[in-house]
Amino acid sequence: MADYRYTVETVIVDDSPMDVFLFQPEGNGPFPGIVLAQHIPVGHTGLENDEFTLTTAQRFANHGFAVAVPFIFHWWPKSESMELKKQESRDDWTLEDVSMAFNVLAGQDGVDAERIGIVGHCWGGRVALLAACHIRQFRALAMFYGGNLKKGLGEGSIAPLDLVANIPCPVLGVFGKDDTNPSPGDVAELEAALTAAGISHTFHQYDGAGHAFQNFPNPERYREAASEDAWDKVLGFLDTQLK
Question: Model pTM greater than 0.90?
Answer without folding.
Answer: yes
